[in-house]
Amino acid sequence: MPSRDFYFRKVPQITEIYDLIKGIEPHQDTNNYLQTVAALEEQVNQTGLKSPQVKIKLEEIGHLSTEMIETKPFAGVGKSRSLEKIKNRMPEHIGQKSAKNAFLTFWSREYLSKRSWIQEINFFNQKIRPATATNYYRKIGENGELLDNLRLIDRSFVAIFGLELLGRTFYIKRQNLHLSWLEVILWRWYDLFLLIPFWRWLRILPVMVWLDQAQLISLHLIRRQLH
């Protein structure tokens, strides 16, 4: 989750899959805001900046900008820093202190008529849109907590690991009848970490042992380098 913004910008295919697992969907308010700006761009291309249709769109976006600053739609998922970036960049670009006034000035026909429309909309798309687009809404599960289907996927892997360990335990027992069942299980004690539904980082231990057994790495050499 902390790296979602990076993947959203660089490898969006990953977030398309991972968002489904985490119950993430576009935030209605910020998504509507960006769609309205996109509609404005299309309208300007069709009728020009001074048309009545464009004037209506500009007033709508100005209202949505004020609403976005006041309602803080980023706060629900801990992305208030993104909103602060937006609130700082626009006043700096316009040369005003108030973020609300800066947005209202930016989305006015008077301002855009004095400046280059292409230059100003490029500024928005490069500096404001990316920070806005990373906002999202995350669904709440029936337990009252944030939806997280990763547990369901993890359980399927735990089941696979469990079946593999069970089959290998029976195989070792048949080859070593003198050993007790507990001794057979402890024969591959490191595989037990694959069945723990918490502290998942401990699963690296059996992976390291497997790699050592396959002679892909040397745990003995690693221990020597650490010391």
Topology diagram in text:
Elements: H1 4-10, H2 12-22, E1 24-26, H3 28-47, H4 52-71, H5 80-94, H6 99-106, H7 109-114, H8 117-133, E2 136-138, H9 150-175, H10 181-187, H11 204-213, H12 219-226
Antiparallel strand pairs: 1-2
Strand elements, count: 2
Mean pLDDT: 87
- Uncertain runs are none
What is the general shape? elongated
Percent range of helical residues: 55-70%
Order of helices and strands: HHEHHHHHHEHHHH
Q: What is the number of independent domains?
A: 2
The structural class is mainly alpha
Kindly provide the radius of gyration, computed on alpha-carbon positions and rounded to a whole number of angstroms: 28 Å
Number of helices: 12
- Major sheet characteristics: 2 strands, antiparallel
User: How is the largest sheet built, in terms of strand order?
Assistant: 1-2
Strand content: under 5%
Distance from first to last alpha carbon: 34 Å
Q: What is the subunit arrangement here?
A: single chain
